[in-house]
Batch of 2 targets.
Target 1
Amino acid sequence: MEIYLAEPRGFCAGVRRAIAIVENALAQHGAPIYVRHEIVHNKHVLENLRQKGVVFIEDIRDADPKRPLIFSAHGVSQKVKDKAQALGLFTIDATCPLVEKVHRQVKQFFEQNFEIIVIGKKEHPEIIGTVGQVGENAKLHVIYSLDEAKSLEIEDTEHVGFVTQTTLSTDDTFEIIHCLKERFPKILGLPKADICYATTNRQTAIKELAKHTQNIIILGSKNSSNSRHLQETALKAGAQNAWLVDDYSELDWKCIDTLASLGISAGASAPEYLVEDLLKELEKRYHNINKNYVTVVKENINFKL
């Protein structure tokens, strides 16, 4: 079997930083450590941290006031931060620096009395945190589709700005932004798209992978936005099969057995050992495995703790 490995894949700098913050807190303060929402969206990462004494909660009132509380990489609203302060909680912020950049932009638009367009999934924790950076009296719209962009009504087209969720599909978001710029020529946004470098790089690598094989495995959890978009990108790029699985045990091996080639990638919140475990399983099952590397860029970005 010909194996094609996408590079880059797996952990991004924001995920590495968030997990390191939790592990450092455990080392300094001992267990338990509380984390509001899942620190990142990956089943294996969460289970590993639970075993070390991390307690994941949605309501900060469930945190022990004597123990540290960490905000996840997705970020939180200003209301959550204010509530934590009012409760006297000791908090540590693991929000991804690229998400923080979006937060700063939203606040700036609000201060300038701009009408704000947020491109993303309304129910996603990152978008909830982004929208929550400004007050309820903000002129703000959350859209997710091209149709919504086409039908959006803006009161003051002279003062309008947009931001995006960092983990969206680069292709779909480009279409939405292009539509908004055509409809509102004076719209402002960050000089570069808000979609993070890691999301862009992994989607580009998937497109290259699809040129070599029509069968692609993406390691990642179903509630991981960037992992789901890798699956969608693979199918749009021509893959016949694109499986999104937490690990190799979820694969339909009867189907895999019929294939001559296979592509492998991993979402930005999926640890590399999941790829290594899959490769070991493939080597057990098949006599001759030939590994090929499909590299689009070498990542060397790290965020300070």
Note: The chain has a mean pLDDT of 96.
Target 2
Amino acid sequence: MHQMPKIRIFLCAPRGFCAGVVRAIDCVERALALHGAPVYVRHEIVHNKYVVDSLKQKGAIFVAELDDIPETTAPVIFSAHGVPKAIPEAARSRNLIAIDATCPLVTKVHREAEIHHRRGRLVLLIGHAGHPEVIGTTGQLPDGAVQLIETLADVETLEVAAHRELAFVTQTTLSVDDTREIVAALQQRFPAIHGPHKEDICYATTNRQEAVKAVAPKVEAMLVVGSPNSSNSQRLREVAEAAGCAISHLILRADDIDWAALAGVTRIGLSAGASAPEILIDEIVDAFRARYDVEIETVTLADETMFFPLPRELRPPV
């Protein structure tokens, strides 16, 4: 009998769904249970193709903008990434039933930005241009009130009136290390800048990056399960690479594994972004079991107990 090559899989923990993603998916499923199909969702509820496809099968219709929704009594749900203020206002003007599935940790950043603005500060938002979370946070305030900072170079070239008070907030799904560098540069250049009381990068992003950092030096390759448009998943792949993992791939599911690239590898790390379901991890482990004699070791860096209740209009009557 042909003997299978041995491989050791180091499972990063925590990995996969965070409390904000669980809440957002529950919003769609609960709305479908209460109102029946269809339920409209503006933007992908979370950045994961598997999740979006499974909700489509249950009766969710995903749209890019409110204008894509016909006259309807069906509810519309706003994604976990948050939306500009103009979106709920537009929904109200059309008498649409709007359900806001914005992650509470993103809402916290919105509130911080609003407070800084009320106090007359220019808000610097550390984040990635075009990401829905950045569009949502920028859209809480009038045009020109928020300035995006993507890189260290942006800090150096930033032009601000001498008397202008500054504050910064960040996207919740950034690289902890990269952001720390940008924040340090801002504080060095503008010592009086106001920052968040508690870091804006969310607990789940931080915990998943720490787990990947702990596993990366032990393995020859790292697979991160997540969608290419998922910011926190992309950051996990980059963190693995920065920690010295030469083969570091972002994959949607088992079908995407580049087996040729893994030839000869005996130790592999496996993690998943905050919007990737555990079923995809199981599928990947099964794909390895079909080809290898697999030994699994879980590397746990934090125990996550965070829970966010559903929006009031979706909670069961008490």
Note: The longest helix spans residues 19-35.
